[in-house]
Amino acid sequence: xxxxENINNRLGKVEKEINQLNERVxxxxxxxxxxxxxxxxKKQEIKRNQHQTYKTxxxxxxxxxxxxxxxxxxxxxxxQYLTQIMGKLNGMENKIAEAHQRLxxxxxxxxxxxxxxxxxxxxx
Length: 124
Fold this sequence. Notes:
A hairpin with a 3-residue loop joins strand 1 (110-112) and strand 2. The protein has one domain (2-109). Strands 1-2 form a two-stranded antiparallel ribbon. The protein starts with a helix and ends in a 6-residue tail after the last strand. With 124 residues, the protein is mostly helical. It is rod-shaped and about 155 Å long. The chain has one helix at residues 2-107, and strands spanning 110-112, 116-118.
């Protein structure tokens, strides 16, 4: 009987050790799952960051392209306005020259574009 009790006690101790080992295995597996989940989360975060960086670079490139296009459009507009202004100035110069010619004809003076307003009337 004592022999059976000893075996029973030993079996109880073995069962207790098995339970402790199972708990350790469960704990190790749980920690491993947590590490794997953390690795996966970090991988996903890296992928998101890479994607965000790509999108940011793409957005920056798009913004740079749009800014360059706006600069080109602005230069084109400025060129167009300057061309209009030059055309108006040219027209004004022509009107001034015509006015000088009419004034010269009316007063008897001759106006040369390079010479300026000179008196060509001869006094004898």
